[in-house]
Each structure stands twice: as C-alpha cells, then as structure tokens.
Amino acid sequence: MDRPELGIETQLVHGDRSAAAGAGVTPPIYQTSSFAFGDAESMAQAARTPTFERFYTRYGNPNHGAVERILASIEGGEAAMVSASGMGAIASTAIALTSAGDHVIAQRVIYDGTRALLSDILGRYGVAVTFVPQDDVTAFAAAMRPNTRLIMLESPSNPLLGVTDVAAVAGIAHEGGALVSIDSTIATPVNTRPLDFGADIVLHSATKYLGGHSDLIAGAVISSRELIARIWDVHHILGASLGPFEAWLLLRGLRTLEMRVERHNANALAVARAMESHPRVVRVYYPGLESHPGHAIAARQMRGFGGLVSIEIDGSFDDARRVIDRLQLFNSAASLGGVESLVAQPAAMWPGSSNAENAREMGIIPSLLRLSIGVERPQDLIADLQHALEGA
Ligand SMILES: *Cc1c(COP(=O)(O)O)cnc(C)c1O
Description:
Elements: H1 8-14, H2 40-46, H3 62-75, E1 79-83, H4 86-96, E2 103-107, H5 112-121, E3 128-132, H6 137-143, E4 148-154, H7 166-175, E5 179-183, H8 188-191, E6 201-205, E7 219-223, H9 225-238, H10 244-254, H11 257-276, E8 281-285, H12 295-301, E9 308-313, H13 317-326, E10 331-332, E11 342-344, H14 346-349, E12 368-372, H15 378-391
Parallel strand pairs: 2-3, 2-4, 4-5, 5-6, 10-11
Antiparallel strand pairs: 1-7, 6-7, 8-9, 9-12, 11-12
Helix pairs in contact: 1-3, 3-10, 4-5, 4-9, 11-15, 13-15
The chain binds pyridoxal-5'-phosphate.
Pyridoxal-5'-phosphate binds near residues 183, 205 and 217.
C-alpha cells in the first residue's frame, strides 16, 4: 500500500492490509518452512524472482512481508528486511557492504555487539575500523579515507543518550562516496526518520520498542530497494531468519507503536524532570532536557526524546546498587523498550568493555543507573524512584 498521506498511526494499523473479503481481520501465522507450487514451471519461476515471500521461510515469509511493508512505509524507505535479531540485521548489513581492504568509521559509543562485530570479527577479514566521538563532526571528516565505504551511527546512544548530527555526518560520508547506517532502536520511527536527514540505511533491534512487550527477539533494516537486495543476499546465506510466529508477534506489537512511544516520551520526560531536582541525583542524562549536551541537535531531528533516562546517583557503586534493590516497580533486567519499566547499572553490566580513559564517555560511571521508562502512570514511577533514593 502506497498512500504516504496517511498518518503513522494509520499506517501501523493498515499498512500491510489487502482487505480481502472473508479474510481474517488479523493475518494468519504462516507457520511453515516451505510453500507449495501448482506446477514445475511456477516453482522454477519463483526460484528466479528477487522477492521470496512464498518459497522457503529462510528466504522470506508472508509474515515477514507484512512487517517489512509497514516498516518501509513509516521510515520513509523503499524496502525493508526483517531478521532474527537486531544483531542479525546489523551484521548482515556490515558484511554485505564491506570487503577486505575497506574502511569503516563508527561511533565510539555504540552497541557493544556492533563494536565487537567491527573490531573483533570484520577485522579478521581485512576490514579496518576507526572509532570517533559521536558528537564531533570534524572527527568523522578527519577519519575519512579513500577506501571508507560505511559510517555506522547510533542515535541516541546507550546509556548516556548521546546524539549524532545525522545530516552533517551524511554530508561528509556522501562527499567521500561512503554510505551511512544508523541504529535507530532507541529513537524509533515515531520520534525520528533518519532517512529524511540523509542516512542511507536504518537499523533496529525490533526486540525493543517495535515489538514493545519484551516477548520476542527480532531485528530490521530499512533502505533503498537496491541496498535491501544486497543485504538480503548476505542475510539469507547467514541464516538469521525470523520465525513466522515472531514476525506475527512483532506485527501485533507494531499496531500500537505510536501510542506506546508517545507515552514512553511523556513518562520519561516527567521522570527526567523529577530526577533533575532530586537532591540525591548528581546528573540526569535525557536528550529532552535543555541541560543535555545533545539537546539542540535532538530538538532538530527528533519529534520526541524516547523512553530511556540515565541518572547518576550522589554516591558509590554500592549505593546505586542499593537503590536498585529498593525499587519495587522497576525490574532489574537487561534490555529496554517494553511496556514495563526496567533498571540496569551499566558499570555492573559492562565492567570491562572499555578502557579507563573512555569509561565516562561510554557511560561506565559507577553510580549510574539506566532507566527504561515504561507506560505505567508516571506519578507511580516517580514515587517509586523517590522512595528508593531516599532510603538507600
Ligand atoms: C538491543 C540492541 C541491539 C541488539 O539487538 P538484538 O535484538 O538483541 O540482537 C542493537 N542496538 C541497540 C541500540 C540495542 O539496544
């Protein structure tokens, strides 16, 4: 369906529909590995077509197609591809777009799986990588080489919610003949559409806000038809294909994406403001606050500022730990982006993932707590945090 005049809320509900009489109001789950053909010639023809929604599920599946049409539409891309995880989408993209002898530039503060993929795995296959600070546009320009093929961004980043100026970096990349990918997991297409700012490829861990209910692992990539075809060529060989049931669950989650993200945005801003004036909190990291170093760029390229808030407690690593243990509504758990609020202590989760010099930039601050703000009533979340902070 190509009706760009429809609002994102409407596209999420109707973007995959063909409205056939007698069909279910919700789509069936195509829980099958393979699809039957009427005769030998139609099977031979299908094996030659570039899109495989009804051939073999590692290649594609109608449940994939439904999610892909919606994601392409709401991100403003020509095409999309779903994957068995965010890392499946990220790895397939980086592997498809680089060869031995190529150079990649990436943000220093980036999802740790992406960092490991670039430095530990692609490095073994002759791809060089330079990591730069995400808020320093001149560092991206200085890192460009004649063989730079790809710049990998993530905005906002985790856990300090650093913001990257997508339009500025895209200008530098395109001048040098490189492509720009951006992990937009934390922003979601409700809050920003990076393709509008010049990015070539948008990546998501659909495990987080797109699914939204902490009940599936999935990933997605959105781009031009040509780039999605190149990425799919690698992805279906690597085999990180999404199960039909996960695709169906993801579609179900997507229906309410807009209203969930609006609530995450409002709740997170309320929590961030309440924490900013709390005496036990030294600093609040939230791109919606005027005090955040990335606020001006975020205000330009985002409609809302997302559901992640990090707070630095006035105290030690152990004091922050005691706050976690006193929280009653926030579950202590990895991941983010679900309807329920979660808390994590980055210094405990990634103790060895960076050197001392960059630890603060990476968010490895002993008393830092990362809050994934859910869709509960904001007063309840704030009261829970206040109670935990005051007693710890
Ligand atoms: C979780 C996450 C990933 C990895 O996604 P998986 O679905 O766990 O593979 C990548 N990037 C960001 C920003 C994430 O939060």
